[in-house]
Structures are given as C-alpha cells and as structure tokens.
Amino acid sequence: MASEYFLLKQIEQLLVGINNSYWSLANHDPLVETARLKILTQHYNGHIREKAVLCLGLMREISALPELIMRANDWAEPVRRAARQSIRRLLTAENTLQFRENLPDFIGLLNCSRDNHQILVDEILNFLSRPDNKSVLFDGLFSINKNVARLSLNILIERRLFPQQQIFHEAMRNSDPLVRVIAAKYQLRDAQQINKETINTLLKDSFAPLKQITLQYIIDNQLIISCSQLSILLFDRNALVRQRSGRLLMEQDIDPKAIYLDAYNTPDSRVSKRKIALLGLDEHHYQNIIEIAERSIDERYSSLYISALKIIIRHKPDDARTILFSAICHSSIFIAKAAVRIFFQQKIYLTLAELQISLKKSPSTAHVSLYYSLARKINKWDWIIFILDNSNADNSQLTQEHIYN
C-alpha cells in the first residue's frame, strides 16, 4: 500500500502543472479510483503513464488489463517495461478468466514492432496452459467472443492439453463455423483420429465449406462412404458439395443424373428438392437439360422458375433478350427482380420502346420501380424522354424519386 500511495503522490505532483488541468479536473473523484488511473495511462506525459501503469499493477486491478496490454506497446520504453511488470503481477489463478478473454489483444501484440512481445505472450500462454488453468481455457471454446474461442481452440490442440477427440467433439458444438473448420482441419491432419463417427459428424455439419473440405479429404484418401449418405449430399444447396458427392457416387458406378431425374419427376418431391435436382442435372451436363428447364417455367413456383431461367439463358444466350423481356413482365415480383439482376449481369440493355411496353404491361407498382431502374441504363436522351413521357398523375411520385436519385 505504501508503494501505491507514493506513486499516487508523485502523479498528483506531476498533474499540478497548468497544462494538466484537463486531466486533474476530468472528474471530482479521488485519484485513487481505478477509472481515473485508467484514463491516466493515456496521458501525453510518459512519466505519468508509467506511474499510472505501475500503480494499477500494485493495486492488482485486473479490470485494467486491456489498458496495460495497450501500454505494453507504448512508444516509451519505460512505459512498456512498467506495463509488462504490472501484467506479470496479475498472473494469479483467480485472474485466469480475464487473461483468457484478453487473448486476442495479447496475440495482437505480436504484430506490433515497437518491442519483442514474444516473451510476454509466451508467458501468458504458459500460464493459461498450466494444469490448474487449462479447464478455463477449455471453457473458452464457448466464449461469447469468437476470437477468444478460436484462439483457445488453437492453443488447446497445439499444446495437446486435452485428448484431441474430446477437443474436437466440444469444438463441433460451437455455433461459430470457423471454430468448427479449425477443429476439422486439425482432426483431418491426423489419420489415427479419422473414423466413421468423425466423418459422419463433419458431413452432417450445416456449414458448406466444412463439408467441402471433408469430401475432398475423402476423395484424396479414397475412403468409402455409403451411397445413402452421398445421395443426401447430392441435394445440398452448395454446388461444390453436390459436385464432389456426385464424383464419389460415380466412383461407385452410380449415376447422379439418374438420382436427380428420379427426384425431379417424383410428384411428391418438394419444390426446393426439384430445384436442386434441376441445377444438379445442369452441373452434370445432362443432354436434355434445356427441355426440362423449359418445362420448369412454372408460374406457381418462383424459385424453380428462376433456376430454370438462369439455365436457359446460359444455354441459349442468343435468346436471352427475348426470354428476359418476358420474365420482367411476370406477375411475380420475385421473378421480375431476378430477371432484372440477370439483365445487369449479362449487360443486356432494353430499348426505349421495350421499356414503354413493359411499363404499360406492369402488373404492380413494384414492377414500375424495376423498369425505372432498367431505364437508367439506356442513353441519357432516351432516359429523359422516358421520364417525361411517364410523368403522368399515376407515376408522378415514382418519376420524381428516380429523377433525384
């Protein structure tokens, strides 16, 4: 306590100067309060910063850990040294949780070039890796801070603090997909850790890149996966997952196109499944894909219509203009919006006459707004004509909006 009091007196004396009125009168609380010392760690005077940092360390004030980490990279070497000293004073068992939660800031020091922070960071990692502290690090897998969870996982695996299978199963319960990907990559590096349960866990994950990594591992290592499991993955929403699953099925002499055709032609199939079946047939270069896509232009199902529209445009680029012109006049605003996006992607532009026809056939006010967005792509003279021709009472508000936007 005597050391703290001595430092506080020194700080008060340094703050007496006229240039320090802001810092000394920032609030009316006594200087001994932690909040005041935290503020003083950012003072322009290096002597004050150094003494504030030392004082916080002597007070064993763990709430000041973020400020101490910041001062560990201070531009003044005495302040950096004082910050490291104070951080080391806080390395006690009751502060393990706070050190874990500040892991991203400690690791961030390694990217700073004012000093060599590797020694300090290693001390922190060694502290968290102690037998009596490692359970706190393990709990970090479910930290609210995603960066803490990711760093905790890396430390747990690299330092082998727990059995790898235990770490893997806990990490796969994390809601952060990147934590699950990190766990999967570590697991797939060790052939001894790979078993049927591990593969099933990875393939059932909702994150598409994780399934992609796993399927590529299966392909590279020539593992055998059941046809039923691959058939399920064949209808994944991610194209690369579907393609890799199809490749594995073909290696077992099973034609993915037959599975897709069966799903597409089954009357009870959900629209989402029929849509993926249509996309899958296109990915596998089915010879009658255009015929099936044209049959899929069903007004009842906008998602199936849009997928079929994209396939037809890709295979019949010469007819794209006519097909898209018909689609932007569709009664479903979702289909019309999709058609407009394809117009922009394909860099196809309508003429003034075509825009006027679309406007007259417009099924709703929302469609009118779409046609105005298309009109902005024509030349300026035609754009002005389009605006003036349609500045009637019905469309006056829309016209004004698009003039000023």
UniProtKB/TrEMBL annotation:
Q: What is this protein called?
A: HEAT repeat domain-containing protein
* Record-linked InterPro entries: ARM-type_fold
Which species is the source of this protein?
Yersinia enterocolitica W22703
Superkingdom as given in the UniProt entry: Bacteria
